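User: tokens in, sequence out, please.
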């Protein structure tokens, strides 16, 4: 049971019912005293219960001690203090509430089904009266005299424990019985009616997703905030050089793509600001686009929402200079030498980046370092070559004074370490990190340094979506054992899109062997849709035309431009869709799309996905490209199109059973 928020003052009977509702399984969702706005006015029933296998029940609770007289319109009751009152028939009240709620539901076309030429709600609703102190014997008398409809009232015997109560809910005279449990989309709309929550984006109201019980528990977990005692190491160092490394309180939320990790993060921020208004909150993301999306979702000016490298830029201040790209420098200065050694620039650049990310600057230590997931054999002779290139590269950096992107977190950390009064040093009580699978160990040194010693951290990750390189939490210096919660249900995408995307993971020997990879749980609540479309074109121009036609069709069908994305694995292809960008279509390379989602997604030029120096010989390269395509596919909520010209790479053949072929 989730999201059962009691009103300030409940009667004894309402407390009894609320206690039972809280004990129900995850198949139930209840709200206390929701406001129903209908044409007849605004009303508040005591409870509304959504049962995934039954329907929606509107509950009116009365803890009357004695019924003196009853008619179809009113009841005469005696209170515990002896006072006699005449009150409306609770069955009439409950039915009025239920009819009003049904009217509100009927405004949502997605909740309607059509049968025999008329539309009706696709799920049953039911009014319920709960008389907490009245016996079944009395209730049967009320039914026999046509004062209550048969079966709608529960008495004291139905409230003895949660199993008896659940059985009583099942026995209600539901108007019809569901042939299958309510799916996630239907539940989302129902819950948005009875427990609405929106975010405001540029003046436009947008409904948020719905919490599962596990998500709700993560969002509302009360953090432990206490002063950390000084350690002996702290006391032996000068004040300005105390290590910014802490025994942090860390919660890891691990989930498959679309499982609601970002929903947990954004609502967690709102919870923390509501309950700890004087504490500073920092939200970190992998890139700028995701930071802007999170900023719109959170919509709190007093919460700092920022991309990691922009945070480093603020920390460095006037010392900031535009970083170079390591692979670009190697291409310009050492490409011929690297290829003479039987290596590729991309491979060597990745090794240099990895060494900087983990802080491995010692050449001797690198010769024996454990390196997993590298397709090309890294024997001692190859490592010595990379050592020589690394030394040359660092000497060039020192001589010319340039730094690369992997140097940025080290420079930011040093700035914090050596500046005790730095405004960003130990500035935040709460730090929340989205898409943490792509944060390197050196990044987390900075994250920990901007966090107070007594602070708490929440990190969200999915190893399957690690598009650049993946590090264990031990390598990142964070202890998450026993502090990890797992979200396996991919609510974002349709069952068909999820199944097609995950076929790439299952077929990949590196990905499928990783212990941290989470298989999605395809439960009954997931909505279904069309299989992803796979289109073979005669040329790149044909692919562009296919995508243009698809975009125009979607726009004509009423899909907003901001809900359509074209995601390219090669940044050079983005320019081919510049005219669509002007119409509001999201066009980016894969690296920019982390954490984002769209109604429809196009993924072009799959024939060159595995092209490059490592093609055909580097398993890690192939695995990384499969992983990137998986991330791109799972950005789509409802509709997905993949295209290629020439020949589909054999590495993508696992997709074929799960796609439809466009002519």
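Assistant: Sequence out:
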């Amino acid at each position: 049971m989730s999201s059962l928020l009691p009103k300030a003052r409940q009667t004894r009977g309402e407390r009894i019912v609320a206690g039972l509702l809280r004990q129900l399984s995850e198949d139930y969702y209840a709200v206390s005293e929701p406001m129903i706005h209908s044409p007849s006015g605004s009303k508040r029933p005591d409870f509304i219960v959504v049962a995934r296998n039954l329907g929606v029940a509107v509950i009116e609770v009365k803890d009357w001690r004695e019924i003196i007289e009853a008619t179809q319109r009113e009841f005469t009751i005696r209170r515990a203090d002896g006072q006699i009152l005449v009150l409306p028939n609770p069955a009439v009240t409950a039915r009025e509430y239920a009819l009003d709620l049904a009217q509100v539901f009927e405004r949502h076309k997605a909740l309607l089904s059509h049968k025999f030429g008329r539309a009706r709600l696709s799920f049953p609703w039911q009014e319920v009266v709960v008389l907490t102190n009245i016996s079944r014997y009395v209730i049967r008398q009320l039914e026999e005299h046509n004062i209550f409809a048969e079966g709608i009232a529960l008495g004291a015997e139905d409230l003895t424990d949660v199993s008896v109560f659940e059985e009583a809910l099942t026995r209600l005279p539901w108007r019809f019985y569901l042939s299958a449990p309510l799916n996630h989309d239907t539940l989302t709309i129902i819950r948005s009616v009875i427990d609405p929550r929106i975010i405001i984006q540029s003046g436009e109201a947008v409904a948020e997703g719905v919490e599962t019980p596990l998500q709700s528990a993560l969002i509302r977990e009360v953090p432990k905030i206490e002063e950390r005692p000084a350690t002996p190491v702290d006391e032996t160092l000068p004040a300005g050089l105390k290590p910014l490394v802490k025994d942090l309180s860390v919660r890891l939320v691990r989930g498959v793509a679309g499982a609601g990790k970002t929903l947990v993060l954004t609502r967690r921020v709102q919870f923390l600001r509501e309950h700890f208004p004087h504490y500073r909150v920092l939200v970190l993301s992998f890139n700028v686009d995701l930071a802007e999306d999170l900023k719109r979702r959170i919509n709190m000016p007093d919460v700092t929402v920022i991309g990691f490298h922009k945070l480093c830029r603020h920390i460095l201040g006037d010392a900031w200079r535009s970083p170079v790209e390591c692979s670009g420098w190697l291409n310009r200065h050492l490409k011929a030498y690297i290829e003479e050694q039987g290596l590729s620039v991309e491979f060597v650049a990745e090794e240099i980046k990895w060494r900087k990310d983990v802080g491995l600057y010692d050449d001797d230590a690198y010769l024996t370092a454990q390196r997993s997931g590298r397709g090309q054999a890294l024997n001692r002779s190859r490592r010595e070559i990379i050592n020589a290139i690394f030394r040359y590269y660092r000497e060039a950096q020192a001589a010319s004074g340039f730094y690369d992107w992997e140097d940025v977190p080290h420079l930011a950390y040093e700035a914090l370490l050596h500046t005790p009064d730095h405004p960003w040093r130990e500035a935040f009580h709460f730090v929340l990190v989205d898409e943490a699978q792509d944060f390197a160990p050196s990044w987390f040194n900075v994250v920990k340094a901007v966090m107070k010693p007594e602070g708490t951290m929440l990190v969200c990750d999915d190893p399957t979506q690690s598009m650049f390189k993946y590090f264990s939490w031990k390598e990142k210096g964070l202890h998450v054992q026993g502090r990890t919660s797992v979200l396996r249900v991919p609510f974002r995408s349709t069952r068909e899109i999820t199944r097609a995307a995950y076929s790439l993971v299952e077929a990949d020997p590196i990905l499928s062997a990783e212990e941290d990879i989470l298989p999605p749980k395809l439960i009954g609540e997931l909505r279904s849709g069309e299989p992803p479309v796979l289109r073979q074109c005669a040329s790149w121009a044909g692919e562009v035309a296919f995508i243009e036609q698809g975009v125009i069709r979607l726009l004509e069908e009423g899909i907003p431009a901001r809900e359509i994305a074209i995601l390219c694995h090669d940044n050079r292809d983005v320019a081919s869709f510049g005219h669509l960008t002007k119409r509001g279509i999201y066009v980016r390379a894969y690296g920019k799309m982390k954490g984002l989602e769209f109604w429809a997604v196009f993924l072009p030029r799959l024939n060159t996905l595995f092209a490059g120096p490592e093609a055909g010989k580097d398993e890690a390269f192939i695995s990384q490209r499969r992983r990137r395509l998986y991330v791109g596919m799972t950005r789509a909520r409802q509709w997905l199109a993949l295209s290629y010209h020439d020949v589909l790479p054999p590495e993508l053949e696992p997709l074929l059973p799960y796609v439809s072929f466009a002519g």
